Amino acid sequence: MSLFRLDASIFPATSSSRALADLVEAEWLAAHPHSTVTRRDLSLDPVPATAWPDAVTAPGVPEAERSERQRAAVELATVIADELTAADALLFAVPLYNYGVSQHFKTWFDLAYTDSRIDPQGTALHGKPATLVTVLGGNYAPGSPREGWDHSTAWLRRVLEDVWGLDLRVVQRPFTLVGVNPAMDAFADTAAALKSDAEQHAVRSGREIAAAHSARVA
Ligand SMILES: Cc1cc2nc3c(=O)[nH]c(=O)nc-3n(C[C@H](O)[C@H](O)[C@H](O)COP(=O)(O)O)c2cc1C
Question: Which of these CATH numbers, 3.40.50.360, 3.40.50.300, 3.30.70.20, 3.40.50.720, describes 2-217?
Fold first, then answer.
């Protein structure tokens, strides 16, 4: 049995998305103590930005004529797809950067999506229990001054839930920059409540994916 975990924070030592993902992982391991955890850390081991176009163009070139980069990209796509398809549950920890989906997560996703097991006809991931943890420095909730500026969470949900067909839970913690950026000090109480909510949600979600896996194999 195994959990696949992807981390995308570029500051792993102080990462709030990692802290929430740790809670999810702990609940998974509490329920499935013999499970392995396969990790992919995109800050330590980023996917090259050239990998996706190389993997997309490779099939149009006879194998013997492919470039080294094309070969490497197809091999990496296979490894990434192996990690996803072999796992019993998936955990993604993906912060908001520059109002959109982070470049390194997008590159990883695009490359994975070139593999036929995961592409639009592939069904290898359908129904797999999964949690997406996402954190935002600000708060883009309805009624806030920057409502609608988070262009990451909806896309992540769309591709993981609707495109890949995962049985997805989304744990979101806004206002992680409160306490870091003094200009946001006025939001300290709200941020503390949102942090506590997210932590409880992460724990629940870890229990849920563990139970969902047990139900799938029962
Ligand atoms: C380069 C950079 C860009 C960021 N862009 C945004 C942004 O557009 N909106 C936002 O709300 N927070 C933004 N943040 C704040 C991060 O979302 C926040 O610090 C988050 O907690 C980072 O995830 P981590 O704690 O897991 O490392 C940015 C942070 C960095 C370092």
Answer: 3.40.50.360
